[in-house]
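User: quick one, fold this
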Amino acid sequence: MSGNMQRLECGVGSEEETMYPVQENQGSALGRRLGYILAAVGLAGTAAFASSAAWPHGSSAPIASGVIGLSSDSDSCTTGRGNCNVTKCCATAGMQCYEQNPSYAQCRATCTAGPDPTHWDGQAWSCKALGQRTAGEDPCGDPGMDCRKSKCCRQPGMTCFEKNESWATCKPSCIPGGPDFNDVDAVPWSCRKLGKTKESTAAWVQEECVAGWGDCSKVGCCKNAGEQCFLQNDYFGECKISCTDPNWGCKTYGQRTPSPAPVASGALPKWAYDVCSPIDGDCTKSHCCIGMDVQCYEKDENWAQCKDWCKAGPHPDDNNETWSCKTLGPRSYGVSTKGFPSLYCFSVLRTTGYEVGLIQAQHDKGIGIFGCDATSLLTADGSITIGTTKSIQFPGAPITVSIDHTAGNTELFVHAWDAVIGANVWRNHTFTLKVDPDAVLIPDRVRWHLHPHVGNKMYIVNCPIGDMMYGALEVFSYYGIKEWSMRGHDCAAPNNWGEDKYMTNCMDFLGVARVHDEAIVADNLCLGSDCGNSNAAAFHPYKDIGQWMACYNKATAPPPKPVQVLK
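Assistant:
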């Protein structure tokens, strides 16, 4: 492509309302209070995190909207996603013309060499800068910034939605007439769409990119949201959330794949508990619901209810009366009391021995599993009470020797999982974590690892040895546990398997998606444990209280201040 020929993308920025409906494998992810962040970040053509600073208004440079090609005059600067390889300049403030290949270049804020998952094709970008960067700042907005004037957003999948005449900001979705869990109050939003939706993950990514332990060094892109291709050397790379292995070069190739729907950090605002309705509750007036994967659906003008789904037409559970099933507010993604996404953590422990001391020490300091949004203790054939938490009792089972010479405890843990499902606490949370008592857990880091996977039916494969989930930290999304609650007893459960092997195989059998993230736990039974690893969210095993606390203190210690050298 040369001269003034234009390269345009079809269908960018539909005028329809941008929504992320919950499906079997994927759902939308709502934010909490002002300030959405993209999990694991790595945004294409944007800064990594939203800036709280205002940007200049009233600029004479036109604001990009959709895909616009070259002006008829080749001396004019390029706007939007038009080809700037001839003009070598950009009309929008803060933009630089970057080359993809000799035939095409585009105005962007930043550029990373390799394929770009948000671009319309998978060809690699050279990122050669053509011409000079246009003076000024990118006028488009980030979540928490007022986008009424710019009418555009920097982050993938975002649209500028209006709340009222006084405020609009960039969000992944918006339901007219309902409040926003990310907002400072319960005032409903008009959800009038201002401008186009920022392009997000392109369709070619699922066909051409890599997942799991596959080699990404040749393609430079990843199928799974939030993952980045990290190179071990010039010949091999893997898609990971982060790279901490000292034996890897950890050089990145290509851009991080955006999350299908950006999510937010922080607990549910106080107004949500005061205003919103519980599961199965009347939401006719509130237009919002408290829980996990629930939304306010209208029956008619006189009744609406918080439900996980609704199909328009006659409802057998309501005397076959007709429901409109119109959505009246945002979908809730968990009861977040301490952070988002919300975590429900439980430990299975003996009623006597060192495990009780480890759990008591965590409780006394409010750390480990007690730093999660909800916590349960499970004990077989007996109960204990730690603080105000009384353990959930479940039937015991014989422990055998497993086929890999560890504890054969599948039957015991199937009973434990039955008790977890029966307690119904998991129903209110985005993720459920089974945590061994001797595992040092840092909940806020877990949230960082799991941000990209909110709304997905998935579980974490945390060890490449055996390509399975090791039992020190087992992580399941709400939809994964929901699947087990319905069909878990269809899984093979030989008692000569370890419970982690059982759950790995069962999740695969149930069609729950694998997400490979060996960096989430540093385990001496897998790749080793270094409590100074700032990317790991758990460390294992530390069976002595002193060792456990020493590891926790090292893991959470602030980084050393740089030494100033006097000249």
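User: anything notable?
Assistant: Confidence is low (pLDDT under 50) at residues 1-74.
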